[in-house]
Amino acid sequence: MADDLVRRAQRFINTVYSGVSGIPHVEEDGVTGWATMYALTRCLQHELGITALSDSFGPTTLSALQAKWPTISQSSIPPANIIRILQSGLYCKGYDGGEIDGVYNNRVSAAVTGLKADMGVDSAYPGDATTPKVFKGLLNMDAYVVVSGGSGTIRTIQRWMNARYINRRNFFVIPCDGNFSRDVQKALMLAIQYELGMSDDAANGVFGPGTKAGLQGNTISQGSSGVWVNLFSAAMIFNRRSGVDFTGSFTASLADAARSFQSFVKLPVTGRGDFQTWASLLVSTGDSTRQGTALDCVTEITTPRALALKAAGYQIVGRYLCNVAGTTLNKKIQPFELTTIAGHGLRVFPIYQTYGGAVTYFNFKQGAADGFDAIVWARHHGFKPGTRIYFAVDYDAIDADVTSNVIPHFRGIKQSIDEYGGGYKMGIYGPRNVCSRVAAQGLTSASFVSDMSTGFSGNLGYPMPEDWAFDQIATIVVGSGDGRIEIDNDIVSGRDNGQSSFAPPGISEELDVLFDSQYLGTLLSDIRHYFSTIGIEESGTGQPYSTEESFRILMAYDRLITNLARALRMRKSLIQVPLLWEIRHYSDLDIVSDELVRQHYENGVGGKTDGSTGLGQIFAATAINSRNYCVDQGLLNVPKLNPAKEADLWQIWQKLNTDPDFNIGVVPHLHIWGANDVGAPRPSLDYSDANTLRVLVRYQGSGPDAEAEGQKRLGLYQVFEGFNKPLREQ
Predict the structure, then answer these.
(1) What does residue 426 show for φ and ψ, rounded to 5 degrees?
(2) In this structure, how many other beta carbons lie within 10 angstroms of the beta carbon of residue 517?
(3) What is the CATH number of the domain that holds 157?
C-alpha cells in the first residue's frame, strides 16, 4: 500500500540527487522497496565522498561513516543531507522521521531510540544517537518488529543476538521479524564462533574445522546452563522443533526435544547437545562424515561395485532413468543393471533429471512432458506400480522461483503421473525449501534433499523437510580396483526403501520419438501432394486454416502427441491423422455450432447440448465415454462422468473447446474406446493397416461415408508413418 511519507523520501532522492552519476531515478510510488533503499545507500555514499557508488552498504561505506560520523545525534550534527537520508530511511522503515528537513529534532531522536529498542541494541548503543551499524540496518528491507507469519520467540532470540554480539566487528544488525532466515543462520554461526573464543579475524560464519573442533568439546546435557544452552535452544527453535523455549537452562523438556530431533534426522538418540546434533542444527549436511545406508550415482553398478557397496554397508541405490539429450554423460540405468543390483541384495529408487538447472526450465507444460517421459522410462526399466520417482530441481531456487515456476512444473508432472502413471508415486530432489513447499502443495510424498549444497539459499536457514526420505550429505569414493565407484552418501529416514523386484523391461526403441525439425518442409510437401490426389486444395472456402497453417498448428504439439503415444504405446501417426484432418476441415459451420452450444448453457437459448469442437472436433459425450472406458481399463486415472448429465457435458465440452492439450489428449482415448466399439484390438505399436483403418473409420462415425473418409485418412496415416518410422528406428 502506498505511503505518502515514503513518497516524500523518494521525491527527496529524485530532487536532491537528480543528475548525480550512479544515483538512479526511483519511482515515486510510495512503496518501500529495494530500489529505494539502494538509492538511499548510494546517496549516503555520495555524501561521504565515495565515488564508486553501489547498492551495497559494505565495509567501505561503513568505515567511511565511522571515520566521519561515528555517532549522529542532536549534539553531533553532520551535513543536513546525511540527516535527510536518515529521515528518509526512517520513513521507509515505518518510523516518524519528522520532516525531511535535515534537522535531528525530537521526533528523529524518538524514532531512532525506538528503532534501536526494536533491534535489541539499545543497551549496546544507549541514548538517541545513530551509529554506523544502526544506519546500515536502517537502509535495507529488514523488519525489526514481528511480521506476518513471524514468531515472537524467534524475535526474542534475534534481539538477544543483536544485543550480545553487535559490538563484534563482523556482526551486523539482523532482522527482528520473527522469521528464521539465511542472515539469521549466518548470525547464529558467528555467535557460536564468538563463544568458542574466536577472534574477529578468525570468526567467519563458516562451519569449518575450528568450529567443528570447538563444538566437539562443548557437549551440553540436562542440568547444563548458560549461553551454550541459549544457543542450543535457539538452534532448536530455528529448526522448528515444537515445545522448545528459548532458555539458558537445559531442562528435561529440552532433553526430550533433543531426542525427538535426533530421532527425526536419524542420529543416535542421546538427549544431549553433542557434536552431531549441533552439526545437524547448524548446517544442512550435518556431520558429513556420517555413514549413510543409501547412495546415488551416475555410474553403472556392476557386480564388483555392488559387492563393494554392500560391504560398505549400503542398502539402497539411487539411479537415473534416462540421459540428458545433447550431452555425453551416460548416467542412465544400463541393460541388466537392475538385475545385478537386486541380485546382490540392494534396492533401487529412480531419479528423473534432464536439465532442471535453471528457473527457465520449469513450467507446467515442461512438467507434464517430464511426467510422461518418466512414466515411459520407468516402465522401460521395469519399475512396478508403487515406485516413487524423484524429479530433480538441481539449482539454487529462490523462494520466488518456487512460486512462479517450480510449483506449476510439479503440477504438470502430477497431472501426467496421476492420469497415466498407473500407480507411480512422485518424489522431489532439491534444496530444503523447494522440497517443503512443493510437498505442502500436496504434489509430492517424499523428499530427496540436496543437503550437500550447504550454501544454497534454499538450504541455509530452512529446516529439514518433514517428509524427507533421503538426505544427500557428501561425495565419497567406495571400493577399489574394478569395485571403485564415486557416490553421493545419503542418510535414510525409512520413508522410502526403494524397489527390489522389477517387471521385464520394455523396449523403448519401438516407441515414437520427437519429430526432427529438418524434415518439416519435406513432410509438409508430401502431405500437400497427398491431399491434392484426394481433392483437398491448399485452402477452401469457409475454412480458415490452409494446409500449411493446419500442419504448423499440429506440429506445435509434437511433444504432447509423442508423449501420449509413448505412454499409451500406440503410434503417434494415429493421433496426428485425425487432428490434422479436422484442423484442415474446420469451417464456419463449426464456429456456428460452437456458439449454439454456448448459447444453450450460458443463456438458456436453444437445445444444442453438445457438438464436435476443438482441434480434434470431438463431442463431449464421446470424450466422456472414451475416457470412462480408459479408466475402466486402468489406462487413465480421472473421475468418471455421465454423458447423460448436462453439467458433465458442459464441463467437458468447455475443456475440449478451450484447452488444446486436453482436446489432443482425448484423441488416443477415443481410438482405444473406438477400437473396442468395432471389435478391433487395442491400438498398439504393431497395429496392422486393417485395424488402423477400422479405428480411423470409427473416429469419423459409421456407414459408407465414414468408410470412404477412413480410406482417405489411412493414406494420410501412411504419409506420417513414412517419416515417423525411420526416425524411431535411428
Answers:
(1) -110, 130
(2) 9
(3) 1.10.101.10
Q: Range of 89's domain?
A: 4-141
Cα 394 to Cα 401: distance, rounded to the nearest angstrom = 13
- For the stretch 51-74, pLDDT in tens is 999 999 999 999 999 999 999 998
Among all chains, which residue has been given the C-alpha cell 568458542? 196
Distance CA 675, CA 697 (A): 10
For the entire predicted model, the pTM comes to 0.87
Pair 366, 462 in one domain:
yes
Q: What is the pLDDT of residue 506?
A: 60
Residue 289 resides in a domain: no
Domain with residue 411: its CATH number is: 3.20.20.80
**Is 181 contained in some domain?**
yes
Question: What was the pLDDT predicted at 370?
Answer: 95
Last residue of a domain, one of 252, 283, 314: 283
Question: Taking residues 202-217, what's their average pLDDT?
Answer: 95
Task: Among 454, 476, 506, identify where a domain stops.
Answer: 506
Asked if 385 contacts 424 with a C-beta cutoff of 8 angstroms, the reply is yes
For residue 313, CA distances in Å to 316, 317, 338, 478 come to 10, 12, 19, 11
Q: How many domains does the chain have?
A: 4
Q: What mean pLDDT is predicted for residues 115-127?
A: 97
C-alpha cell at 504: 521385464
**How much is the pLDDT for 730?**
78
Alpha-carbon distances, residue 547 vs 519, 529, 661 (angstroms): 17, 11, 21
Under the banding of pLDDT at 50, 70 and 90, the label for residue 1 is low
Contact 173, 125 (CB under 8 A): no
Q: What share of the chain is helix, strand, coil (3-state, %, to 5)?
A: 50, 10, 40
Residue located via cell numbers 571400493: 479
The pLDDT mean for the chain works out to 95
Helices 152-165 and 227-238, packing angle to 10 deg: 140
Tens of pLDDT, residues 4-47: 889 999 999 999 999 899 999 999 999 999 999 999 999 999 99
- HEC secondary structure over 275-333: HHHHHHHHCCCCCCCCCCCEEECCCCCCHHHHHHHHHCCCCEEEEECCCCCCCCCCCEC
Residues 304, 334: contact at Cβ < 8 Å? no
For residues 638-647, one letter each, b for 16 or more C-beta atoms within 10 angstroms of the residue's C-beta and e for the rest, the string is eeebebeeee
Question: Residue 174 is which amino acid?
Answer: I
Residue found by looking up cell 472456402 in the block: 541
End-to-end C-alpha distance for the chain, whole angstroms: 60
**Residues 139, 39: Cα–Cα separation, whole Å:** 9
Can you tell me the distance from the alpha carbon of 600 to that of 610, in angstroms, rounded to the nearest whole number?
Answer: 9
